Amino acid sequence: MQVDLPLFGTVVLCALLVCAAYTAGVAIVAGRGRPALLSSARWGTYATCALVALGVLTLAYAFQTHDFRIRYVSRYSDRSMPWYYLVTSLWGGQDGSLLWWAFLLSLYTTACTRWMRGKYQELQPWVIATLMSIFIFFAVLMLFAANPFAVNAAGPPVDGEGLNPLLQNYWMIIHPPTLYSGFVGWSIPFAFVIAALITGRLGEEWIFATRRWVLVAWLALSCGNLLGMLWSYEELGWGGYWAWDPVENAAFMPWLAGTAFLHCVMIQERRGMLKVYNVFLLCLTFIMTIFGTFLTRSGLIASVHSFARSDIGQYFVGYLIVLVVVCLGLIAWRLPKLRAENRIDAVLSRETAFLMNNWILLGMLLFVVIATTFPLISEALRGQTVSVGPGFYNRWMIPFGIVLLFLAGVGPLIAWRKASGRNLFRAFVVPLAAGLIVCLAHVFIGPIFGFPARVESPSIYETTTGQVLAAISSLMPLLSTTTCAFVTAAIVQEFVRGTAMRMRNAKESLPVAFVNLVIRARRRYGGYIVHLAIVVMFLGFTGAAYDVEKEAALRPGERLEIGNFSLRYENSRMEADENKRMVFSDLTVYENGRMLGRISPAKFIYRTLPDMPTTEVAIRSSSRSDLYVIMNSVNPETRVGTFKAIVRPFVSWIWFGGLLLIFGTLIAAAPTWKEMFGEARAGAPARGGNLSVAAFLLLGAFAYPLLVPSNARADGEGSSSLHAGVVNIRNAREGQLFERLLCMCGDCQTLPLTKCACSFAVDARASLRERLDDGESLQSIIASYRAQYGPRAIAIPSDQGLDRALWAVPVTAAVLAAVGLVFLGRKWAKRGATADAASAAAAKVNAPADTSAYDNKLEDELKDIDGM
Amino acid sequence: MLPLVFLTLAAVMLLLVLLAVWQSVRMITTSDIEADISSPSDDRAALLDEKNALLRSIKDLEFERGVGKIDDEDFARLDAKYRARAKDVLRLLDVDLGKWKAKAEALVAERLAKAGAETASESVSVTASVSEELADSVPEVVSDSVRELSSVSEISLLHCARCSSRNDADAAFCKKCGSALV
After folding, report:
1. Does residue A815 register a pLDDT over 80?
2. Are residues A420 and B71, on separate chains, in Cβ contact within 8 Å?
3. Architecture per CATH, A1-185
């Protein structure tokens, strides 16, 4: 007898819906004055999580046994696939990825429920109820719109359609789960903040409770983004790591909001201010994760990642509306309880620096949100689908990024509350000097090593705005190195001063003092290490300004010279396996005459997609630069091959910075000994917390080998991309034109003509080049391209009419916010003094019972914490 | 082989679901109010968290003064504020502990009374067994205080001249027979 697996799976999903609703109900009753029911709700939570796991295991079993009765199984697998791709198929398509999403949420929920045992009993029922509401949403979504257990209407096929070859690589094993856990991770802090709003317990409690969960989610999200960049760099074969694709933006938006929260919450912890704002930021971060999913999964905006258009969009819109209404309603209801305990005392204070940082981060967020949704807005307002290409983002994000980086150095230097002139001078003199020295060095010595301070940067508009942006972009390398030097010096100075103080006060030797310094204030120094990681990554991004590209047709034995590298084309060879034919070209790499080794870029021709050979790039990494080699074509008779080589300085620094970021975050999130062992004795079990720490230590270990820069990859396994041609740009004017036009072949991911290498793009470039040579102006070429392919073909919306709103709205919002901040600051500064006096008086009136008896006890406790 | 693994895991999950649902429903029906009241205080964990955060804030502030990032005047004001709150939290923790202490003391006294006129060394073993018993149901801090109590009983328990009951060192009358203690 054969089990009706599809039916069983659907029943499990129904049970999930019922169980989550039941648990939410019990939890709400428990929260409304029947605390005895809490343990019942906890068991209900475990049951719900186990049900999700049961669903995932059922689907996994169906994949392993090739149960093609299930539509999802037949669409994303076939009989020839190895077992591990059968496992990754779980999240290879839309329906399964929703189930996988729920599964990750169930892991977080189980860990959190266990960790909450015996603590936060007031918040707990509402935390559980909120988490269950998320499960309910996913259960409804799966049952009514995207059931992974739906059956094939036409009966089971003999064999499945198989997983897209693009997805059959190790990136598919690691990238989506990491990114998803970054998205899903924000559910826990969100649940806590909702619980805090409902119970009115809006003190520090929820902040302490969520501190580590926030770091876990932030780390996973950062790792997810980094892995996405690596994937883009190594797989897509156009030489870049970030294309501002809607899906990349979807992952970037919650990261921006989350990073803003991470900083701003420190102000609340320290000064009891900005309570409303922090609550709002955390809600915003969670909403952004759902909004990002909606953007990409609904297929409303074309993207390389989007699955087929589907009707899950309306469910997401409904859920988003509910979320926004509930969050805003709760905040409005609790507004009186969210009053600040303090005011900002002085403009020159760390609070202000943090506010500035938030201003920039949210400005970037607004920019990305508007630009990502602009195609939809434009379609709704004027029935015209437009595109917003990477050129737009790159120009506008550079100034934001530099200011943000600068603030990463300023923040740690300024004191809380009020920085006096003397303190400021002491703190800033060394970093500023370091910045100045590097700036001068870059201007005068940089060009000797091939790194001039100014680079060519074409304008994206014909207006003044375009010229200003182009000027900033062309100075980007200099601005970046100067700021990086400033921030690095500021952070190093922090470490040096702290260590010196320990050596002086605690009479410790240098290494002991250093280690103790970091161990004692993990969050602070972990945070500084993360700042340092951002600096390192920024240097990597800066390297893109110095890319050198070259292409050549070579006969065996001939050489291609590029930068310090020389490539000798040895020969080409053909291999085949059951899935594909592979054409490799072997090239020997020399650097300054010294042989480095052999690399083998390739083309794979899959049996299922013979018309779309995939390009397998070969990358040779070093700390100074990456050599990125693409094979365009090879003539089987003459053996003449055409190659494109790109030398990209400092790319590996991005990946190294990523590792440093993981390391820093782990330090910041690491539990203290007391939390791990001592606190359990004190009645607050921290095992759940330890579990989570162990889990993401594991995650770090898992990510490590993948983040380590690779050497001469592409000897067969792994990378694939559907590009066949080669990009060749001869001069800046061409670059300026091609950057503003998108490839419209319909198959590739509509990259700009500067990047896309498909045959359509090659032809388009050739014809456009002729028109440029004939002396036609950029505007008229763009206009005719637009007339031919529609407004969607233009990568950068113009600087007129509604298109201008694309940058004008966020810039205006940012300026208004800045003006508002200044006014607020003035008001606060004025009120600060009186409020202080008032609170001091109030403190006297409300003085709690005499606590002088606790003086000694407090001293003992302080000694204890020092002895840890 | 692998399908079998998934099948087994799925079966285990199904059992877990059933177990969890059964537990959950059972707890609704029995709804053990008593158990709820005797569970550790709601706020205790939160207070402990706050205490740790405050202690760290105080340390942090001292550090900031050490590296010259904060004025002495500001330091004094903030430090005083944090310390006041920290002491308050310590007090609240003690208040919270108070009811446990009372319960523990009552339990100890009951056991001691049962044990009757036994030697001091035995009484220590009795309190030890009480503390073990308590450890299951109350936070461990309380068993600490029980341990404290047991050491107290060794040193300074007053024996009633009439009924030989052991009484607290500062007791004026015997808690069993009511006669005045010398």
Report:
1. yes
2. yes
3. Up-down Bundle (1.20)
